[in-house]
Amino acid sequence: MTPAARDAAAITLLDRWLEGQPLEAALTNWARASRFAGSGDREAVRDLVFQAVRRRRSAAALGQGESGRALLLGLAREAGQDLSTWNGEGHAPAPLSEAERALLAAPLPDLPRGVALDCPDWLLPDVDAALGAQAEAVLRRMRDRAPVFLRVNTARTTLEAVAARLAGDGIETRPHPLAETALEVTANPRRLRNSAALAEGEIEMQDAASQAVALAFAAQAKALAASRVLDFCAGGGGKALALAAEGLAVSAHDIDPRRMSDLPARAERAGARIRVLGDVSAGGWEAILADAPCSGSGSWRRAPEAKWRFSAERLAELLRIQDQILDRCAALTAPGGILGYATCSMLRAENEERVAAFLKRHPGWQSLSDLRLSPLDGGDGFFLAVLRKQ
Ligand SMILES: C[S@@+](CC[C@H](N)C(=O)[O-])C[C@H]1O[C@@H](n2cnc3c(N)ncnc32)[C@H](O)[C@@H]1O
């Protein structure tokens, strides 16, 4: 596909998304119906579509419209591209109209803050309160794609050995200061899919901040000599696997057990022993991690659709669920045990305010530590509070 044909495909996909089709479904349907598109084309179209969704507000303002074509025009205007390839020939988009040509050549206007930063207005006060002077820089960082990170299974190998093995496949990496288990992929991330290191459990795809949270919690659980750790919201098991690699005996639970369906196979591949529990009515856990459902506002670079779907009603519902999970885990924790409360949210409402409300409801608990990471640290936005039952 020519670059202009890729633009035309992205325009079609963005239109479908704007009409209400989920992004992944639109991309999958298009890829199935477009046998002419090679893997490089599919990745390029995906990148373009995701970038337009990340920047939906500013792109719509600069392109002056809520259509796929206007969004790409807006992206091009901000980047100073001329779009002369849009000539209507072959599979290229129709040529620019006079008005579009004038728009593309016009100086960039001053946009309202929420538009320029691609943030819904109703979230700005919380983001400002949470991030203070860093709010703008963080939101700007969120307008671009996230790096690709690997977690090295240090129970089995070393960062150096994995990096050398991946380099043999042309995949370049470098260690990342956020977590001692993290490698950032700097070239050819798409080759990872076929890498033997992944198939053999030497690496997992996991954001570096997520790794840092797992390592910080593991260190406190080990300091307590906790013999058993419960991952109460295990989901796909990213954190459970990271905790197990630190030598902890991990049990995994999730309200939706189907989410854990791949966990036994992933654990086996990694050489980790993780017990998957259907029921956790028995308490007495010395260490529990509650990686709670949240807005995902720290990972909106990877899942940009969620940023525009999120609402005040959904936030209120999440806050209730987070409180319930914390209360349930408090009852399951042994006296003297610890409870880690984690989110991939940057909002105070889901983080510090939930912990403060918990401590008010549970006077017998104290806060041991807080960790707040933002995309300026390199990975996703994450939060971890470790609480102790007296
Ligand atoms: C942020 S995800 C977990 C991600 C996972 N820990 C990881 O690192 O891959 C949150 C999980 O919490 C689960 N969940 C939601 N409500 C819950 C509840 N009341 N009790 C337990 N798990 C819950 C969801 O099904 C979801 O899998």
From TrEMBL:
<comment type="similarity">
    <text>Belongs to the class I-like SAM-binding methyltransferase superfamily. RsmB/NOP family.</text>
</comment>
<keyword id="KW-0694">RNA-binding</keyword>
<dbReference type="GO" id="GO:0001510">
    <property type="term" value="P:RNA methylation"/>
</dbReference>
<dbReference type="InterPro" id="IPR023267">
    <property type="entry name" value="RCMT"/>
</dbReference>
<dbReference type="InterPro" id="IPR001678">
    <property type="entry name" value="MeTrfase_RsmB-F_NOP2_dom"/>
</dbReference>
<protein>
    <submittedName>
        <fullName>SAM-dependent methyltransferase</fullName>
    </submittedName>
</protein>
<feature type="binding site">
    <location>
        <position position="291"/>
    </location>
    <ligand>
        <name>S-adenosyl-L-methionine</name>
    </ligand>
</feature>
<dbReference type="InterPro" id="IPR029063">
    <property type="entry name" value="SAM-dependent_MTases_sf"/>
</dbReference>
<feature type="binding site">
    <location>
        <position position="254"/>
    </location>
    <ligand>
        <name>S-adenosyl-L-methionine</name>
    </ligand>
</feature>
<dbReference type="InterPro" id="IPR049560">
    <property type="entry name" value="MeTrfase_RsmB-F_NOP2_cat"/>
</dbReference>
<dbReference type="Pfam" id="PF01189">
    <property type="entry name" value="Methyltr_RsmB-F"/>
</dbReference>
<keyword id="KW-0808">Transferase</keyword>
<dbReference type="GO" id="GO:0008173">
    <property type="term" value="F:RNA methyltransferase activity"/>
</dbReference>
<feature type="active site" description="Nucleophile">
    <location>
        <position position="344"/>
    </location>
</feature>
<keyword id="KW-0489">Methyltransferase</keyword>
<dbReference type="Pfam" id="PF22458">
    <property type="entry name" value="RsmF-B_ferredox"/>
</dbReference>
<dbReference type="GO" id="GO:0003723">
    <property type="term" value="F:RNA binding"/>
</dbReference>
<keyword id="KW-0949">S-adenosyl-L-methionine</keyword>
<feature type="domain" description="SAM-dependent MTase RsmB/NOP-type">
    <location>
        <begin position="138"/>
        <end position="390"/>
    </location>
</feature>
<dbReference type="InterPro" id="IPR054728">
    <property type="entry name" value="RsmB-like_ferredoxin"/>
</dbReference>
